[in-house]
Amino acid sequence: MSEVIKQKKLIDPNNIDRRGKESKFRLYVSRVVSYLVLAFLTFICIFPFVMLIVNATKSHTAITQGFDLIPGTRFILNFQNMIDHDNMPVLSALVNSLFIATVSASLTTYFSAMTAYGIHTYAFKFKNAAFTFILFIMMIPAQVSTLGFLNLIAQMNLKDSFIPLIVPAVASPAVFYYIKQYMQSILPHEVIESARADGAGEFRIFNTIVLPMIKPAIAVQAIFSFVFSWNNYFVPNLVISSKEKKTIPLLIAQLRNADYASFDMGQIYMMICIAILPILVVYLFLSRYIISGITAGSVKG
Asked: Is the pLDDT of residue 230 over 60?
């Protein structure tokens, strides 16, 4: 008799309706909490950019008095003072940074993809050892080999040159590893064997078949390589010495370390705005490649 009563309670319409309301309420609360957390994280991400833009419109005195959301009236004046600065060749630094970042990103992604293609496609002796060695290099910090690197470029008379900033960036274990993992998930060996059977050479297969298939991975790593090279301060600070060859990070550091008489926070914020502008443009136009490349490369099938 008790079992029958329990079953009737379970199928009671009032109980079913009450459970449905409780489930809807819990779902509503979880959504509200999720939106509040996402709104808070969005605010944390956007607030530094807002602070940067607002401070770029103010004078040094106004900035030292504290931050507020009211923009100033010195945006154009800060820009002119930065451009007219005698010791700050901003335009040439922009060109230098753009050239170094673009060339190094292009070479890095292309040759890393070629290396990943060789490791992924060919079966040769010590293949696993070569892959392990590349991963081992990825774990070594760049600062460890800095002294030997500086001695080498000094012996080759390459100091104060763009070559040490571009050529070593071609060998990028991290880019190689990501592209190889992406190839494993999207590049079957049957496609390569079919192209070989049709008489295509290896370079033609790589350039006309493999590269279009791994385009999302190429785009993602090109973006990351560009950003890394654009923001690089450590190596250029050791290699570059002449004023006309300096990059944007070097100028920002130089302006930040200026003496008190010429120290201007408004110009510093203005130069930082100019420095992050190319990165924002790259991400805005190529963000869809980042999402598709990461999601496609994370699932093997």
From this structure: yes
Closest CA to 160 of 238, 97, 72: 238
Question: 76 to each of 58, 225, 228, how far by Cα in Å?
Answer: 10, 32, 29
Nearest-angstrom CA–CA distance, 143 and 162: 19
pLDDT of res. 63: 82
What pLDDT is recorded for position 109? 92
Higher confidence at residue 68 or residue 108? 108
Query: 């999601």: which residue's tokens?
Result: 295
Q: Is residue 261 scored above 60 in pLDDT?
A: no
Higher pLDDT, 67 or 37: 37
Long-range pairs of 206-210 with CB within 8 A, sequence gap ≥ 24: 206/113, 206/114, 206/117, 210/113, 210/117, 210/183
Please indicate, yes or no, whether residues 97 and 11 belong to a single structural domain of this protein.
Answer: no
CA–CA distance, 183 with 270 (Å, rounded to integer): 42
How many structural domains compose the chain?
2
Confidence (pTM) = 0.77
Instruction: Tell me: do 144 and 9 sit in the same domain.
Output: no
Are 34 and 118 part of one and the same domain?
A: no
Residues 145 and 44 reside in one and the same domain: no
How far is it, in rounded angstroms, from Cα 127 to Cα 125? 5
Same domain, yes or no: 222 and 263: yes
Q: Is 291 a member of any domain? A: yes
Whether 69 is in a domain gets the answer no
Q: What percent of the chain has pLDDT over 90?
A: 10
What range does the domain containing 11 cover? Answer: 2-55
What's the CA gap between 42 and 47, in Å, rounded? 8
